[in-house]
Write a structure and sequence with these properties.
This protein folds into three domains: about 60 residues, no CATH class; about 100 residues, no CATH class; about 90 residues, no CATH class. Strands 3, 5, 9, 10, 11, 17 and 18 form a seven-stranded antiparallel beta sheet that branches. Strands 12-13-14-15-16 form a five-stranded antiparallel beta sheet, with no helix packed on it. The two termini are about 25 Å apart. The protein is an alpha+beta fold and about 270 residues long. A hairpin with a 2-residue loop joins strand 10 and strand 11. Its main location: membrane. Keywords: Cytochrome c-type biogenesis, Membrane, Transmembrane, Transmembrane helix. It is found in: Membrane. This is ResB-like domain-containing protein.
């Protein structure tokens, strides 16, 4: 309310009159953030066995002409441990990766155990847990070893995972070499078959329980998993979030009605 000359002015909800301008500015902010995400981000994926390393910059690839690497791209990631949780039915429930990040000088700058929907964020880079695989099986053969047997993915119907490996017996250079086959759907149990393809038993890694197959004693020492990671940088995300916040605020304000009253005093 204010007085100007012989007139008295009163306003109510003046901010609602300018709210539509704020709505349009917020939409422009969202568009700018989306454009920056499309032209200035990096993305990449990698599968890393437990105990091995990778450099962030070796995995990430540019998405557009504005993509510019940062100092964090020289960070080395070490997979300390990969493990899974299971339902009572034996199905995989969740998988976790214990990751350590080292700078270019070899100093650990961060350590975190990530899982699905719980990523790691460092220096503008986000590392997501997205998949897993079976890297190798450690076995003892007649108390010798351990030997690392690479596990290969096998094609099966549906979305189930199945991995297999082969431990040759006798002359490995023979064209008709035979051996012990081992199959696994996850890291908790290994199904073992003899040279004729007959089922001989199931063993859990680290159980130290031997199994005798055609005179050969086998002990499953460990199952080494691989973690599947997705990495990305997205500089437009903060701008998009700010735009959406401003859009919601200005939209609510725009519903406030604007009223103007003018009273003019006349001299008698």
């Amino acid at each position: 309310v204010f007085l100007k000359g012989p007139s008295l002015y009163a306003f109510k909800g003046l901010v609602g009159r300018f709210a539509p301008i704020g709505v349009h500015l917020a939409m422009l902010l969202i568009m700018a953030g989306g454009t920056l995400s499309a032209t200035g981000s990096f993305r990449g994926s990698v599968t890393v066995p437990q105990g091995l390393n990778f450099v962030v910059g070796d995995v990430l690839g540019p998405n557009g002409f504005l993509s510019t690497p940062t100092d964090a791209f020289s960070t080395e990631v070490h997979v300390n441990k990969f493990y899974m949780d299971y339902y009572d039915s034996g199905e995989v429930k969740q998988f976790h990766s214990d990751l350590s990040l080292f700078d270019i000088g070899g100093k650990e700058v961060m350590r975190k155990t990530i899982s699905v929907n719980d990523p790691l964020r460092y220096g503008g880079i986000t590392i997501y847990q997205t998949d897993w695989s079976f890297s190798a099986l450690q076995v003892l053969k007649n108390d010798e070893g351990p030997f690392n047997l690479a596990m290969a993915p096998l094609k099966v119907n549906g979305d189930k995972k199945l991995f297999g490996t082969f431990l040759p017996l006798g002359d490995v250079n023979s064209p008709n070499v035979k051996g012990i086959s081992m199959l696994a759907r996850d890291l908790q149990s290994i199904v073992i078959y003899d040279q004729e393809g007959k089922f001989t038993g199931v063993r859990r890694p680290n159980s130290k329980l031997p199994i005798d197959i055609d005179g050969t004693k086998i002990v499953i020492v460990d199952a080494i998993g691989s973690t599947g990671l997705d990495l990305k940088t997205d500089p437009g995300v903060p701008i998009v979030y700010a735009g959406f916040g401003a859009l919601m605020l200005t939209t609510c304000i725009s519903f406030l009605s604007h009223t103007q009253v003018k009273l003019q005093f006349l001299e008698l």
